[in-house]
Design goal:
The chain is α/β, with parallel strands linked by helices and about 350 residues long. It has helices at about 35-40, 75-90, 105-120, 130-135, 180-195, 205-220, 245-250, 250-260, 280-285, 295-305, 350-359; strands at about 1-5, 10-15, 20-25, 25-30, 35, 50, 95-100, 125-130, 140-150, 155-160, 165-175, 225-230, 235-240, 265-270, 290, 315-320, 320-325, 335, 340-345, 345-350. Helix 2 (about 75-90) crosses helix 3.
């Protein structure tokens, strides 16, 4: 089974448990080319006005501020990014794909996604709430809160696990979106450079990009201490950075997240948000029971659901209730989602307008 996980901090495509694409939902739109994923992330500080990080979160036909010849709106970027994912992941045309989306994805966005995917020759066979599907791999009955961070929001999904996993509610925390956290970490490391080397890497786009890339790479590796080196005018400078420094920089944002979570409860962390320095420690210190799902959990859930994932004539199922690991029954809470737009070139046209024009 093919699985596409649409979290814009780390979009993943897998065939079975074999991950063939895992890159961020980021683009850099220049006049002559568009870069996506890791290639785009390596240019965001060099071309800040051309960097696009909102198009998955704000999936719509709304225009973007700085476009290119083939890119006019968020839907264009999603379409082009899906094509790149297909190409790099060797996903065949019209192959059934299980797609997992964040809990805060609106019905309108789901419908638009179906239309865009269809234009890209991607057959979405099932749409699932990412938190619900991922948590279904846990055999822990009771209530829990699933935390996952997108590029601009942390999503808190309240779940009930009792033979099946069902979503009871969700909320958002902008303070601990990935980009907000990264900006704080960059500032902290830049201050360290000024203190120890009297060089400010944020004054020059190239050294800022080097700093940004180093910090992201090492935070993802979860090492306790790492070196950050920047080079300029033939001279290299380096500082030693600890995760505790980054955790301290994020402390106010993490405290705000704690307040939003509320009283001690069972917390389930995605593997992405579990990398945030200090988060697990802060949660446990506040009395929460913290569990981390493994990176392949969503793909395991999709494989368990494979027999039910075929698209029916009634539309694609949006699944907000899923059989849990110790009870693999049929998912029971299905919402039928239909495409609402046709994508032709760079134009997303409402199907209602098309129908009206034909009457």
């Amino acid at each position: 089974v093919w699985t596409l996980e649409l979290n814009d901090t780390e979009i993943s495509l897998a065939q079975g448990l074999d991950v063939v694409y895992r890159q961020p939902g980021v683009a850099v739109v220049l006049d002559d080319r568009v870069s996506f994923g890791d290639a785009a992330l390596e240019q965001t500080r060099l071309h800040p006005r051309q960097a696009q990080t909102q198009y998955w979160h704000q999936l719509s036909a709304d225009p973007i501020a700085v476009g290119g010849r083939t890119i006019k709106n968020h839907a264009d970027l999603v379409y082009q990014h899906l094509l790149e994912i297909k190409r790099l992941g060797n996903l065949p045309d019209n192959e059934p794909v299980f797609v997992a989306v964040p809990s805060n994805t609106s019905p309108e966005q789901l419908s638009l996604l179906l239309g865009i995917a269809n234009e890209a020759s991607i057959q979405i066979s099932a749409l699932a709430d990412l938190a619900v599907a991922t948590a279904s791999t846990l055999a822990r009955p009771g209530h829990c809160t699933f935390l996952d961070n997108g590029f601009h929001r942390t999503i808190l999904t309240r779940l009930e696990i009792n033979g099946s996993v069902s979503r009871t509610s969700y909320s958002e925390a902008a303070e601990t979106g990935f980009q907000a956290l990264v900006e704080g970490w960059i500032d902290a490391v830049a201050d360290l450079f000024v203190q120890e080397t009297r060089f400010d890497p944020l004054r020059i786009a190239d050294t800022e990009q080097q700093l940004f890339s180093h910090v992201l790479k090492n935070v993802a590796s979860c090492v306790d201490e790492f070196l950050v080196e920047v080079s300029h005018a033939g001279e290299s400078r380096r500082v030693a950075v600890t995760r505790s420094l980054l955790a301290t920089k994020s402390s106010q944002r993490l405290d705000a997240l704690l307040q939003q979570i509320g009283d001690p409860t069972t917390i389930v962390l995605s593997h992405r948000i579990a990398r945030v320095p200090g988060l697990t420690e802060v949660l446990r210190a506040a009395g929460h029971d913290v569990n981390v799902v493994e990176p392949h959990a969503i793909f395991s859930a999709a494989m368990a659901h494979e027999k039910n994932s075929a698209q029916s004539d009634g539309g694609v199922s949006f699944i907000t209730q899923f059989a849990s690991a110790n009870s693999r029954d049929e998912p029971t809470n299905l919402i039928r989602v239909r495409p609402t737009h046709l994508l032709h070139g760079t134009e997303a046209t409402s199907l209602s307008n098309v129908i009206s024009d034909q009457n």
